[in-house]
């Protein structure tokens, strides 16, 4: 998710779940080809398994960018065919490509050939006045024929005219059943469902119909939601870290990044939801939000925030 799942966020999420597959923010093929590659593509090996999500519609450029992604060690290349922003439409990529399955197929084939990695597609169930049955099936069939075996489907249309990207994540109605039907019709394809899924129980229910579930906003707002994924969904027998364990494990990373000149807030803004629903969660969030962005803010902010949720401040008061 753009501006959200950057490498700091992903490192943090990986402390909570080892098995969840993580995705980068969308980066354009041009940014990969002509941008500062360390900034655009750099990640810690700890973040794997990790997919690089690309945006674009020029098969040659996408192929070159996918190849570079493979060289950097990504496990999968994903093509964004779901983003509805105007900026993205004017560059002819994102959700508007739902109307151009042949072009998407060409891009997928070129990316697969150049990178040697699995190429997956993240799409919607349609755009504007497309027919959610026929047009969507046609899109999937043509792109699958070009070599895409995995689709991650945000189970609502994108309405490209008149809605903001944010509205396009909430207003077009969700149709999870349409994604389930896709899996029934093409059982040999790997189908992952996305959109409005807020808990592991909901995810588990979808898994009786499809192969995987992608969580977006829920996992960002309440990242500890992922803590049970390894055990419950992947059958791993590792012990689940506590929220405080996660926070403590993040400290050495933050320390190393601070030493490299990264601002504290660039990392701590992603952990605001760690204590979601717990006692003193609001005070934890407030302390980090208010102090984390100040010039020179360092580990002491994190330590004080830890004290708040661990109840140290309360114990001090009680002992006084
Ligand atoms: C801030 C934000 C940024 C997003 N950026 C991307 C992106 O870069 N690529 C993408 O495929 N989807 C992006 N999305 C959409 C999500 O991946 C997801 O499809 C959508 O939020 C619906 O799933 P959810 O209800 O689980 O959040 C973004 C969503 C949000 C809230």
Structure description:
- By secondary structure, the chain is α/β, with parallel strands linked by helices.
- Helix content is 46%, strand content 12%.
- It has helices at residues 7-16, 29-34, 37-41, 59-72, 86-90, 101-115, 134-145, 176-185, 200-206, 217-221, 229-232, 243-259, 264-268, 281-291, 299-310, 312-319, and strands at 22-28, 50-55, 76-81, 119-124, 150-154, 190-194, 212-214.
- Helix 7 (134-145) links the parallel strand 4 (119-124) and strand 5.
- The chain is globular.
- The model has no long low-confidence stretch (mean pLDDT 95).
- Bound molecules: flavin mononucleotide.
- Flavin mononucleotide (FMN) is lined by residues 1-4, 25-26, 53, 80, 82-83, 122, 154, 169, 194-197, 215-218.
- Flavin mononucleotide is lined by residues 1-4, 25-26, 53, 80, 82-83, 122, 154, 169, 194-197, 215-218.
One letter per element, helices H and strands E, the order comes to HEHHEHEHHEHEHEHEHHHHHHH
Radius of gyration over C-alpha positions, nearest whole angstrom? 21 Å
Low-confidence stretches: none
Secondary-structure content class: alpha/beta
Bound molecules: flavin mononucleotide
* DSSP helical segment count: 16
Beta-strand portion reads: 5-15%
Shape: globular
Number of strands: 7
Q: Strands of the largest sheet, in order across it?
A: 1-2-3-4-5-6-7
Sheet with the most strands?
7 strands, parallel
Helix content estimate: 40-55%
Overall pLDDT confidence: 95
Query: Termini, distance in Å?
Result: 46 Å
Condensed summary:
This protein is of the alpha/beta class and 320 residues long.
């Amino acid at each position: 998710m753009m501006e959200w799942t950057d490498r700091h966020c992903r490192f943090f999420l990986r402390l909570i779940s080892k098995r969840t597959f993580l995705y980068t923010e969308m980066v354009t093929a041009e940014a990969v080809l002509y941008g500062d590659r360390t900034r655009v593509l750099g990640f810690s090996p700890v973040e794997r398994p990790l997919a690089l999500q690309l945006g674009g519609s020029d098969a040659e450029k996408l192929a070159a960018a996918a190849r570079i992604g493979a060289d950097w060690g990504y496990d999968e290349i994903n093509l964004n065919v779901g983003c509805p922003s105007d900026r993205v439409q004017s560059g002819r990529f994102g959700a508007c490509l739902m109307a151009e399955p042949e072009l998407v197929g060409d891009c997928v084939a070129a990316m697969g050939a150049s990178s040697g990695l699995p190429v997956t597609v993240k799409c919607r169930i349609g755009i504007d006045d497309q027919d959610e049955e026929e047009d969507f099936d046609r899109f999937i069939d043509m792109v699958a024929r070009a070599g895409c075996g995995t689709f991650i489907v945000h189970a609502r249309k994108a309405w490209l005219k008149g809605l903001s990207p944010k509205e396009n994540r909430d207003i077009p109605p969700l149709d999870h059943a349409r994604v389930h039907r896709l899996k029934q019709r093409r059982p040999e394809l790997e189908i992952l469902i996305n959109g409005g899924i807020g808990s592991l129980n909901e995810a588990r229910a979808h898994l009786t119909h499809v192969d995987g579930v992608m969580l977006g906003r829920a996992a960002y707002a309440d990242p500890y939601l992922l803590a049970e994924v390894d055990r419950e969904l992947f059958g791993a027998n590792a012990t689940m870290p506590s929220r405080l364990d996660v926070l403590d494990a993040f400290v050495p990373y933050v320390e190393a990044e601070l030493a490299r000149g990264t601002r504290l807030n660039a990392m701590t803004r992603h952990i605001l939801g760690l204590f979601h629903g717990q006692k003193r969660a609001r005070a934890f969030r407030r302390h980090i939000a208010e102090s984390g962005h100040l010039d020179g803010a360092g580990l002491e902010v994190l330590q004080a925030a830890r004290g708040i949720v661990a109840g140290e401040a309360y114990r001090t008061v009680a002992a006084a």
